[in-house]
Amino acid sequence: MNIIVCIKQVPDTSEVRIDPETNTIIREGVPSIINPFDENAIEEAVGLVEEHGGKVTVISMGPPQAEAALREALAMGADEAILVSDRCFAASDTLATSYVLSTAIRTIGDYDLIFCGKQAFDGDTAQVPPGIAEQLGIPQVTFAIGLEIDGRKLRVRRMLESEFEVVEVRTPALVSVVKQINEPRRPGIKAKLAAKKKDVTMWDSTCLDVEACLCGLDGSPTRVVRTFAPSREIQGEKFEGEPGECAVAVVERLIGEKII
Ligand SMILES: Cc1cc2nc3c(=O)[nH]c(=O)nc-3n(C[C@H](O)[C@H](O)[C@H](O)COP(=O)(O)OP(=O)(O)OC[C@H]3O[C@@H](n4cnc5c(N)ncnc54)[C@H](O)[C@@H]3O)c2cc1C
Predict the structure, then answer these.
(1) C-alpha 25 – ligand 1 centre gap (Å)
(2) 202 domain residue, yes or no
(3) Residue 153 in contact with residue 170, Cβ under 8 Å?
(4) If you measure from the C-alpha of residue 160 to the centroid of ligand 1, how many angstroms do you get, rounded to a whole number?
(5) Is 243 a member of any domain?
(6) Which ligand 1 atom is at minimum distance from the Cα of 96?
(7) d(CA 70, CA 83)
(8) Which is it for strands 113-117 and 173-177: parallel, antiparallel or unpaired?
(9) Mean per-residue pLDDT for 38-47?
(10) How does the average pLDDT of the chain come out, rounded?
């Protein structure tokens, strides 16, 4: 079974800072990690290949420093890694990102499954996995929490807000996973050192059959016009006094407002 895992390198912070001039993410001075959901995707792929045989290829589109994320994935057990990086891919929105990644996946060729994370920690759109599946013309299953494979039949349990749903698709298919699907392995120092010695294949735009007008800013129909952090002001009323008196005052107020 040949599995491709799309991974994104993201800032290691819950407080993503945005450059107000360019509306892009400020990466300087912030350590980077593999997008947490993508670690689950790698774990699932490596586990399936351990069980059924085959190969896991990890792929990332990003700046040269995204190589570090790919090496982490190699340490987790991926067999091959590809970094798709070119200045003309910079400033891609989700459509352009999906286009470049799907072109790279076509270039890889033979695959049974594509795994993605549910969404990226920084961009947060969850649009790239459906975008890739659409461009490749293959079925996609989102919010996967469990998988069973029987030949070309793939049965996926999806985690919805208040229920589970089981769907069946035929491979090749794309599956995006939630964090509850597994516990990603933590590679030891030996695996990390071995991963440092492995090759990471670099693909720029000349290696891919891409049309320049569909990549980067030119290929991005959306523009971020404004980004801002929500106000952290605490709204509401402050009750002064002893804790017991405050509790009584709060309950009286809630009764008065017919909330309880
Ligand atoms: C209008 C717009 C303009 C933008 N402009 C810029 C910009 O100028 N500069 C900039 O740095 N970013 C920019 N971005 C962010 C950039 O487009 C996104 O980071 C990228 O398209 C992925 O979207 P996402 O982060 O929402 O990923 P999601 O769709 O939330 O990611 C879901 C999953 O898709 C896969 N995936 C996503 N991105 C990648 C990737 N790059 N490589 C491999 N797998 C991936 C992973 O498995 C991930 O878990 C922009 C976004 C938008 C919407």
Answers:
(1) 11
(2) yes
(3) yes
(4) 23
(5) no
(6) 21
(7) 8
(8) parallel
(9) 98
(10) 93
> What pLDDT digit, counting tens, does each position of 120-176 carry?
998 889 999 999 999 999 999 999 999 999 999 999 999 999 999 999 999 999 999
Q: What is the CA(123)–ligand 1 centre distance, in A?
A: 5
Domain of 18, in residue numbers? 2-214
Contact between 179 and 144 under an 8 Å Cβ cutoff? The reply is no
> 140 — alpha (psi -120 to 50), left (phi > 0) or beta?
beta
User: Which residue puts its alpha carbon closest to atom 51 of ligand 1?
Assistant: 93
Pair of tokens at residue 154: 């793939």
What's the total number of domains in the chain?
1
Please check whether residue 74 lies inside any domain of the structure.
yes
**Atom 45 of ligand 1, nearest CA residue:** 8
Encode 199-217: b = buried (16+ Cβ within 10 Å), e = exposed: ebeebebeebebeeeebbe
Q: What is the pTM of this model?
A: 0.87
Between helices 128-136 and 94-108, what is the axis angle to 10°? 50
Distance CA 73, CA 57 (A): 9
Indicate which CATH number applies to the domain containing 130.
3.40.50.620
Q: Name the residue type at position 115.
A: F
Kindly state whether residue 223 falls inside one of the protein's structural domains: no
**Residue entry with tokens 């996973």:** 177
Q: Give residue ranges with CB within 6 A of ligand 1.
A: 6-8, 24-25, 35, 37-38, 41, 60-62, 91-94, 97, 101, 116-117, 119-120, 122-129, 220, 222-224
Measured by CA distance, the residue closest to atom 39 of ligand 1 is 8
Residue 232 scores a pLDDT above 80: no
CA distance 81 to 42: 12
And the tokens for 39? 């670690």
End-to-end CA distance of the chain: 57
